[in-house]
Every structure is written in structure tokens, then in C-alpha cells.
Amino acid sequence: MASSSSSASSSAAAVVLCIWLCSFSSSSRCHGAPTVVPALYVLGDSLTDVGNNNHLHLSLIKADFPHNGVDYAGREATGRFSNGKNSADFIAEKLGLPPSPPYLSLSHASNSVGTFLSGVNFASGGAGVLNSTHRDKCLSMNKQIDYYASVYGSIVQQLGSYKAQAHLSNSIFALSIGSNDILGYVRSSSSNKLKHTPQTFIDSLASSLQQQLRRIYNLGARKYVFIGGGPIGCCPALRHDNRTRECNVEANHLSVEYNKRASSLLQQMSIELSDMSYSFFDTYNALLEFINNPDTYGFVEVKSACCGLGKLKARVACIPISSYCSNRRNHIFWDMYHPTEATYEKLTITAFDGSVPYVYPINIKQLVAM
Ligand SMILES: *[C@@H]1O[C@H](CO)[C@@H](O)[C@H](O)[C@H]1NC(C)=O
Ligand SMILES: *[C@@H]1O[C@H](CO)[C@@H](O)[C@H](O)[C@H]1NC(C)=O
């Protein structure tokens, strides 16, 4: 009797708490667990694109056709480079938020400002830190920040700068960028590599990234989730080019160097700017751990893509005439460049709940609680 009345009063308290939190929110997400994160803003590449590239009519970097989305609700090819959800979806899910909609699907909508307040995704497949990476085929990081700047302007106009800053300070800014720049460098001509040594190339990435991270800060971001470069050399496309089917050493090395620079830029920022905090997810080490110990994580196939044709299913991309595997949850790679939904999900769980060497100095759950 006593215990049932105490559980009744604690559930009443939970309802009050939810109503209290919902009264601060203008979005429609107040249906389940209360959350303290008002919005998720995403900038990045194909690991987080939820459909922006569908709107780039001249781009060939797209995923809005089968067999992409074969495991998505309604088997829909939404433009995600995955058989199902991707990192942006799982981060939103873990935060208790709906997936942030693609910016290019909103910009002409009349009630965008309300939508902006519950999060926006600017990520674009093929994007890089450098403007020159897949120029005109995607939204470069600088272009994404230009778009975010206009969203910021609308939010400030609607809420006033004080409330806008309160909203943005508690929001999560997730960034996944750098892998496409590295792929571009690895595949560039030997004359380009003579002109730009690995060291000068990484220096140029770091200096552009530094400006980008600062610009986002100046537009209100305070909580950064940075998704570092993965073991790019181990994706089926690059293994395919190696006679031994082992990982491309140069690409992996560059990814490690890039991650060191990116994490130290964030660390410097957090020292200089006392109200800025971050969680750095070391995709390189986290994914390599899955590749090296697949049994532990429920994977079987670590080299071949699920969808594609030819050796390692990496000779022909995942296009409608390609075949795809039935055991998608035990493959690390969906297509020649991208993880499966299962991999995206397991990586995101590590980013939320894990610790060094995979995520540091704090995980996403701790970042949210700050
Ligand atoms: C990169 O693109 C942005 C526009 O998105 C532009 O403002 C900037 O000047 C460009 N930077 C370089 C180095 O070309
Ligand atoms: C191919 O794999 C081998 C390991 O078996 C490695 O030593 C070699 O550097 C790789 N080739 C490239 C281009 O990375």
C-alpha cells in the first residue's frame, strides 16, 4: 500500500517535470522522456547527411535510390548513405529528439523558424573541410556554416539574443568532417603530393577547421560533438585497390594525424573559451576495434561491402543493379565507403556511453549533463 502510493506520487512528479520541461519548448518532441537538450544541429559529410544532397540536382554524390534505405521505415531511400539510419539519426535518438530535418528541405517552408528551433541538419555527402573537396557536388563545410549563419539570424530575430543564446548553449552541435579531404589527397596525383606533403596537407586542413570551429562558436555553439576521421584505408573501396586486400596505410595514417590535430584544436578552444565544451569521438580507434575483433561486437564480414558488385563488392557502387547481402547486421560496411546501420548504431552507443581511447575528454552523455 505504502509502496504503491509512493510510486503514484513519483509518477505524478515525473509528469509535472515533463510539463515543466515542455513549457520551455516550442517543438513537438514532448511526447516521451523529458530531455534537457532543446535541439541538435548537424554539420558534416555522408556519415550524417539525411537528405541534403537530394536537393543538389547536379551532384552525383547521392543515395536517394535503392538499395539505400532497404532497412529504413517504409524501405525508403531518403538520401542517407546507409541501409537504414545513420550517425545523425542515432545521435538524435539517444538525445531523445526526432532526427533534425535536412536544411535544404526547409529553406522554402514558411514556418521554418519554429522548425529551426528543434534542430537542423546541414550535412552533405562528399563534403570536406576544404572548399575544393568535391567542389560544386556538395555543400562544403564553409557553405554549411553560411547556411547555419542564416538560421542563427532567424533564431535571434525570433527569440532575441538573450533567449537565442540560452537555446543554443544547451543545444548539441555535431560535426563529422575531414574524411573526404583525406580521400581526395590519397587519390590525388603524385605531382599534387609533391607540391603538398602529408604534413602541409594536414596543416591546411587544421587551419581551415580551426576557423570553422571558431565561426560556429561565434554563432552561438557551446557544446560540440566532433566525430573524427575513421580508418578510411580499411573501407572496401581502398582495400579493393590493394592487391593483398589489406588497409591502405597512407589513408589510415592521415586520418590518425588529422584526428590528433582536430582534438587538439578543440582542447585549445575549451581552454581559451571557458563556456565551450566538447566530446571528441575517435572513430578511427572505435571502428578499428570492430574490424579487429568482429566476434566481440557481433560482426562477421569486415572487409567486403554488403551492397555493390565485384571484388569486395567494391568494384561497382551500391546502385540499383547491384546486389546486396541479406545479413546486413553482421557486415561492418554497407557500401564501398559507408558503414551499415548496425555499425552506425554501435559507434554512436560508444560515443554516448564510452570512454578513452574511443571518446574524450568526456562522452556525449556527460557533455549533455554539463
Ligand atoms: C570557401 O567558400 C566560402 C563560401 O562558402 C567563401 O566565403 C570562402 O572565401 C572560400 N574560401 C576559399 C579559400 O576559397
Ligand atoms: C597493402 O597492404 C599491405 C599489407 O598487406 C601494406 O603493406 C601496403 O602498404 C598496402 N598498400 C597500400 C597502397 O597501402
TrEMBL record:
<dbReference type="Pfam" id="PF00657">
    <property type="entry name" value="Lipase_GDSL"/>
</dbReference>
<keyword id="KW-0442">Lipid degradation</keyword>
<dbReference type="GO" id="GO:0016788">
    <property type="term" value="F:hydrolase activity, acting on ester bonds"/>
</dbReference>
<dbReference type="InterPro" id="IPR036514">
    <property type="entry name" value="SGNH_hydro_sf"/>
</dbReference>
<comment type="similarity">
    <text>Belongs to the 'GDSL' lipolytic enzyme family.</text>
</comment>
<dbReference type="InterPro" id="IPR001087">
    <property type="entry name" value="GDSL"/>
</dbReference>
<keyword id="KW-0378">Hydrolase</keyword>
<feature type="signal peptide">
    <location>
        <begin position="1"/>
        <end position="32"/>
    </location>
</feature>
<keyword id="KW-0443">Lipid metabolism</keyword>
<protein>
    <submittedName>
        <fullName>GDSL esterase/lipase</fullName>
    </submittedName>
</protein>
<keyword id="KW-0732">Signal</keyword>
<dbReference type="GO" id="GO:0016042">
    <property type="term" value="P:lipid catabolic process"/>
</dbReference>
<dbReference type="InterPro" id="IPR035669">
    <property type="entry name" value="SGNH_plant_lipase-like"/>
</dbReference>
<dbReference type="InterPro" id="IPR051058">
    <property type="entry name" value="GDSL_Est/Lipase"/>
</dbReference>
